[in-house]
């Protein structure tokens, strides 16, 4: 019982740290943090922040610290040619069609309403069949770099934005390589209050668990390669990072019929009618909706605490 109570205390401390003290950008209210900040993942994330190497502790990190990624930048035109062909053949549009399994993307579906779209290449140990067929050169380059956990092409239309958000899990750092971009400061990303913009053939890296947002105030599409790069951590952080990567692998989403899919993709598709009813309940009977919502959230927190207890025991065993 005491380990659970101790972990509960540490979990609350981690949530407070992320909400009040991490970085320069802040959530406006506690409600916004609870709604957008994924507080359920804060305990494990904070542990990974503590065990990260120095080069991975800032909102932006230097690509030069990851020399293996130079291969992607050296071959950016090869990658760009395949991505442009995907765009021209309408593959990006297909992935956002509700009748396709690709629509049910737990991690990125909320971006569809802004016109954003994607095409997965690899995902935490899986290489999608459609990617092998349609962008084989890109896939070969990605598979030759062990630190690339996952990769996709992403497309943002003109005069579009992604409102500020953060990604839930801290097992990776985010790598962006410009392929066909406006090359304009008016098409930019802001990470923890610091801006940069995309240029063709140029790359940058950042920690996606900091608050960030994107704006494309130009008349041109922004096409990039987006990769998850393994977060460098010390020996204490490796069990947590390994666990996180196994979890994220379950989020695998297909591009086209015949592609592999993860259990969360299939579950999300089955739950969509229920989620739509929940949205209606929120409007028609908020007094019932919010207690049910918090019941689900606290149940998930309880599951997380059990996982944390197991990890805690594993770390103690490794240290001893």
TrEMBL record:
Q: Where are the transmembrane segments?
A: 294-319
Gene Ontology MF terms: dioxygenase activity
Q: Which UniProt keywords apply?
A: Dioxygenase, Membrane, Oxidoreductase, Transmembrane, Transmembrane helix
* Pfam families per the UniProt record, alphabetical: Asp_Arg_Hydrox
Is-annotated flag, keyword NADP?
Answer: no
- Spell out the InterPro entries in the cross-references: Asp/Arg/Pro-Hydrxlase (IPR007803), Asp/Asn_beta-hydroxylase (IPR051821), IPNS-like_sf (IPR027443)
Q: Which domain of life is it from?
A: Bacteria
The text of the family note is: Belongs to the aspartyl/asparaginyl beta-hydroxylase family.
Protein name per the record: Beta-hydroxylase
| UniProt source species | Pseudoalteromonas rubra
């Amino acid at each position: 019982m005491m380990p659970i109570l101790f972990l509960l205390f540490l979990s609350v401390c981690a949530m407070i740290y992320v909400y009040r003290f991490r970085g320069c950008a802040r959530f406006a209210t506690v409600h916004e943090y609870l709604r957008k900040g994924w507080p359920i993942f804060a305990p494990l994330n904070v542990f990974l922040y503590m065990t990260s190497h120095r080069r991975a502790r800032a909102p932006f990190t230097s690509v030069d610290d990851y020399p293996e990624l130079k291969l992607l930048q050296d071959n950016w035109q090869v990658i760009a040619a395949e991505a442009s062909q995907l765009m021209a053949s309408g593959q990006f549009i297909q992935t956002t069609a509700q009748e396709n399994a690709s629509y049910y993307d737990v991690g990125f579906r909320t971006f569809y309403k802004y016109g954003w779209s994607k095409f997965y290449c690899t995902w935490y140990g899986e290489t999608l069949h459609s990617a092998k067929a349609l962008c084989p050169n890109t896939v070969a380059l990605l598979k030759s770099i062990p630190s690339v956990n996952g990769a996709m092409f992403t497309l943002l239309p003109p005069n579009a934005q992604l409102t500020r958000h953060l990604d839930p899990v801290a097992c990776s750092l985010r790598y962006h390589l410009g392929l066909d971009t406006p090359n304009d400061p008016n098409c930019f990303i802001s990470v923890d209050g610091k801006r940069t913009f995309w240029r063709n053939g140029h790359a940058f890296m950042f920690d996606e668990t900091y608050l960030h947002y994107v704006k494309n105030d130009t008349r041109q599409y922004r096409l990039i390669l987006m990769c998850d790069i393994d977060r460098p951590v010390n020996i204490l952080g490796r069990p947590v990072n390994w666990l996180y990567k196994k979890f994220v692998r379950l989020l695998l989403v297909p591009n086209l019929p015949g592609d592999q899919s993860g259990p969360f993709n299939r579950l999300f598709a089955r739950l969509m009618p229920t989620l739509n009813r929940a949205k209606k309940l929120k409007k028609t009977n908020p007094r019932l909706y919010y207690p049910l919502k918090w019941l689900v959230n606290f149940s998930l927190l309880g599951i997380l605490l059990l996982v944390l207890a197991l990890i805690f025991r594993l770390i103690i065993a490794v240290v001893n």
